[in-house]
């Protein structure tokens, strides 16, 4: 026994690293000769070594030699499954745990055959349903063969799956029909709308021309009217200035000699602009400053709607949402979210600015002594009336164009969404699906957004806006990604991954948050029931690649 | 896990200032990314620290009264007088076996806290031989350690072979603040009459306010401090926990190193601030010897360090070159807020002896169960049972070994520890059993704070039994932690600990199984709204002791009680596994420690090594840092490098903050996942080596992860080295800690020594520094020539499944063609080894014979494991045959192959059982 081992050692010809011994080459020659004979002799009766699949069986057929599957080395057949790893590619020990990368094949007759890492052989855990992986001597884990039961259960499960898939497939066909119809419908209405818009554009241009025509005589008449009024006012002002100057002169000309001297001015401290208590000659020459100009309000205030948007501080509201409540609870002395107060103050301030501004503007329209400009004459009024009517009509035409433009854009937006190669996801568009767990109601509005709201009440939090399909290349339509949800305090924007699978109806079946602010939804839909299988034969009748 | 409430940044938000909002946002981020220093005291904000630090060195007012000298065998005592105040103290010198001296200076009148439960009972005593002369005496132990006491001013020197190794109070900084009555404010006349011998009053002595927290200090000032000098030493180590260099730095221009267990949110690197744990133990090392000094005090402690070499200007250093070199010296100054002076000197003289001496006094480390030494997967939080099931399955799917899955605070019912969230974890036993079916374990977090809720059984029982810590005016102390308002059991009480231990029984801890283990977090203790995020110092523990007295010990007591509970639940049959964040001297007896809430950055990966080395040399071998970094998201390269580094650190756990992205190994890009899988599998292959190293630690106190100088004590190159280390005495590890690194510089110590790259068997000779090429796959690890390392090469899902697997021995020969190593084997989980069910083998290669023999003939463990392979590296010549003989086997030749190029011989399948003694002779 011992001696033979040594001899065998010497015959390890293919161990590239081994120091070759003198007898070796001779033995090799002999053995190669023998091998060719053995090849012929080997028959089907040779049993497969443990852990070898039927496909790989031919490589283990030789009764004397085994060549590592990567061809790197040749070893004695007795070294196969001898619980020592000889091959770099782990192929000599399919039935033991000796090799790090080995694969053990479970036949699992009655169920699915499978490979397990050979490191799981004889580790005390039953991995193969036929118990073939746990075989080692006394004290080994007792595994029972339950492949038949598993096989039966699996068959039942698969049959149910097929039934479900088939029913879903029918619904899906319906969806495809709907989707294609809808697409056509949209294309149709788009076409119609575009035509309508063309007409409306023309009408608008026409109305614009008419408006301009009506406005130019109107302007002339109004300007003329204003010019007369301005001239009257100018004369009036001149007279008044003169009178005021005389009064002032009289007051300053203390000695009534018709001349004002610096000495006379020195009595008037209002000219002491440097505040040194004296009115110098320089100071006497300077005319009093104009009253301060009206401060102009911040620009955006004039832009009406835009300012409203600016005031909506999208992000900060996030701090009050439920995720941060925990922290707020823990530490009430540090937290100060006084944005509500600021918002109030700010609104007040802007309102005041605006009111002041309007007031000033009104004042400007009035004449000296607050007199109103007299009414326009009848002819001018008539012109204004005509122009007003033209403006109104133009506005109407413009509105129509804008409405049409919006309708077109809406449809284009819908049509830009990838609803599947056959439009099978169309019926999901514009729908929303909810799932409620212990704390939240989650909502999926496909191709629009995802959200959650606390069951206990409170506002909805956006968990993502439609991003794109994100399944792997071979199954692109199995996952949806919703991104750019509400920002997480001190973190990323919320996002949602929706995992879809075939189901009889559209249903949101679960929602979770595997890591902060990253959500995962499971959604069932017939749109993903892509295969129709014959229940009897198990043959696939129809299969749609997505 | 963890982190205090400091995560919240105060925002003042004005909508007028849109740009300001962004600015605030940036400021907010900046604040969140670093420790808020304002939350923690500097020395000048701590009145006793300031008082002691302000002391001038010079003549000490303390003198020994030689007339009071009393000598009895192992104890020398005498009185010490403070000549300035007239107050007397009692000084004791205890002689201990193993070159150990204990110095105690007590207050004979006032009761002061003395640290209990840390010093091992029944220490072997050693007899003093005392020689007196006028004004001094010399007391000598059999081990040739001498203490020379000079009476006036008081000074002690610890000598060995005639050389002064440590001096006490040589700088005269001794300060023993006497407890006294608080003086009422005095009128100017009375002021004048004040006796001159009273200690001066300073602000902060009777009351101290930090931020909004008032410390009432009913006992007034009671700090103790003294200076220790180490002549002849330039390097000192230890006093963890600090995020600082391994070789301690001078504190001349910084605050002193602080020891005060604190929950520091996002701690800063390279400074002396206090962290989660405290071991007031320092080692000094030079090329001739190593010594250790334990300052046994559980109150807040600060340590100033100065050094005549480190603090010297460049000019003076140049002068030294010209003149005779001045003897280097490290001076240290230690002071604690209360308690007594209780100091141990461990005189070595070798590092191993110091470590053994220290462990003899403070307790040998626990031998952890095998699974605890393997890989742990944690996250705050695995959300529910499905999540756990999925993580468990993914490890198998990707064929990555894993032993333990962890659950952080979210698994509980509203942060009530030892309960389960009834929705997310509705079947905890089934879940654990399912995980355990593959040989794996689970860990749940159990923090010491109890949610204040009368419906919570633990809280109710603690209140009913009066087990809670009290405030200074006697009501139950309340603080904020994860559950909101919480109470804190007084773990310093034996009855509280016993009660706690019982709560961990399988009946009381509903939903627990024998495969569930424990994690104690927040046990500094963390109190979110307390001063410095911890408990008020004037809170009351048993016997009227203040929290001030026991603070640094609290976490150890939590750890101790939890370990006790695990032992009790199996009637003392099974070993425990409990991870703790807070620690103190002696925590090594209980289990593992980790470095708390680190961060996903290259800097934090780097600092893990000096931090772990510091804790290691302070006697706690089972330590680790969160793989990947707790806060923030590691880039894939960083995570990969972290796995590679941590696979070679003692406690190997990946963990992450709630706000981070998932980062389990299979979420890495495929090439990196492969690398991480290899790193984890390497850890598993080396488990026999790790386990043996932990066994040795449990017998000797010598750490598993060791500084380079420990093995090469006279190689000064290694004294400040902290980026490479040894595991045991065999493996040199130099983890890659730089982004995009393509090479690292490795120092191979030892003249005449050879080192082998464990992957390529490339040979390096010492003493030399080599630049080594590294790709992403490479972990630079080298086996020292002259060592034998046992491995298990079979890949299993977890360590338990490989218990009976065969061994491979890696024999790396030294220049004399010799090597030796050890292998320890037992069942991996029970205490049966204490009754002899173990095997401890010495394996040697000498004179062309490799043999394995039991070191300890008492070992009776029957293993099924056999010897699969022997790899001999560095063998000069191939033998013609190899003959195996041994107990119960007939002598026969074994197969082998020899590679002439790299000089590696592989013996194929000797198949001998590892339990028996055997010999393999290499024939010429």
From TrEMBL, chain A:
GO terms for biological process: N-glycan processing. Keywords: Calcium, Coiled coil, Disulfide bond, Endoplasmic reticulum, Signal. It comes from the Eukaryota. Residues 430-531 form the MRH domain. Residues 208-228, 236-247, 346-368 have a biased composition (Basic and acidic residues). Residues 380-414 form a coiled coil. GO terms for cellular component: glucosidase II complex. One of its GO terms (molecular function) is calcium ion binding. Residues 240-275 form the EF-hand domain. Pfam families: PRKCSH-like, PRKCSH_1. This is Glucosidase 2 subunit beta. The lineage of its organism: Eukaryota, Metazoa, Echinodermata, Eleutherozoa, Asterozoa.
Automatic annotation (TrEMBL), chain B:
Residues 176-205 are annotated as: Disordered. Residues 190-205 have a biased composition (Acidic residues). Gene3D superfamilies: Glycosidases, glycosyl hydrolase (family 31), Golgi alpha-mannosidase II. Its EC number is 3.2.1.207. It comes from the Eukaryota. Pathway: Glycan metabolism; N-glycan metabolism. Residues 178-189 have a biased composition (Basic and acidic residues). GO terms for molecular function: carbohydrate binding; Glc2Man9GlcNAc2 oligosaccharide glucosidase activity; glucan 1,3-alpha-glucosidase activity. This is Neutral alpha-glucosidase AB. The lineage of its organism: Eukaryota, Metazoa, Echinodermata, Eleutherozoa, Asterozoa.
